[in-house]
Amino acid sequence: MAWSILFVAGLLEITWAIGLKYTEGFSRLVPSVVTLAAMAGSIVLLGLALKSLPVGTAYAVWTGIGAVGTATLGIVLFGEPATALRLASIALIIAGIVGLKLVT
């Protein structure tokens, strides 16, 4: 169950990271509220997952999910470059997340 909670926390991290772009410096109400709610939810769920997962593993996976999702959506939504090196780097983060899951 802790891994599922951690995964949702990671999805919320992606939500707030992408949401920051849409807040336009927190000058737009709805995107700002959604972004702040996602931030709070992400931290709360991370805290719940930490009840049974090691902090180093959980934090690394949480940030990894956020990094992979945010980088991928940056490519898809904002036309950021999808170079071979960038995609390989994303793949390495995924490999790290999987590795941490396998040894925990």
TrEMBL record:
<keyword id="KW-1133">Transmembrane helix</keyword>
<keyword id="KW-0472">Membrane</keyword>
<keyword id="KW-1003">Cell membrane</keyword>
<keyword id="KW-0812">Transmembrane</keyword>
<dbReference type="InterPro" id="IPR000390">
    <property type="entry name" value="Small_drug/metabolite_transptr"/>
</dbReference>
<feature type="transmembrane region" description="Helical">
    <location>
        <begin position="33"/>
        <end position="50"/>
    </location>
</feature>
<feature type="transmembrane region" description="Helical">
    <location>
        <begin position="84"/>
        <end position="103"/>
    </location>
</feature>
<dbReference type="GO" id="GO:0005886">
    <property type="term" value="C:plasma membrane"/>
</dbReference>
<comment type="similarity">
    <text>Belongs to the drug/metabolite transporter (DMT) superfamily. Small multidrug resistance (SMR) (TC 2.A.7.1) family. Gdx/SugE subfamily.</text>
</comment>
<keyword id="KW-0813">Transport</keyword>
<dbReference type="GO" id="GO:0022857">
    <property type="term" value="F:transmembrane transporter activity"/>
</dbReference>
<dbReference type="InterPro" id="IPR037185">
    <property type="entry name" value="EmrE-like"/>
</dbReference>
<dbReference type="Pfam" id="PF00893">
    <property type="entry name" value="Multi_Drug_Res"/>
</dbReference>
<dbReference type="GO" id="GO:1990961">
    <property type="term" value="P:xenobiotic detoxification by transmembrane export across the plasma membrane"/>
</dbReference>
<feature type="transmembrane region" description="Helical">
    <location>
        <begin position="57"/>
        <end position="78"/>
    </location>
</feature>
<dbReference type="InterPro" id="IPR045324">
    <property type="entry name" value="Small_multidrug_res"/>
</dbReference>
<protein>
    <recommendedName>
        <fullName>Guanidinium exporter</fullName>
    </recommendedName>
</protein>
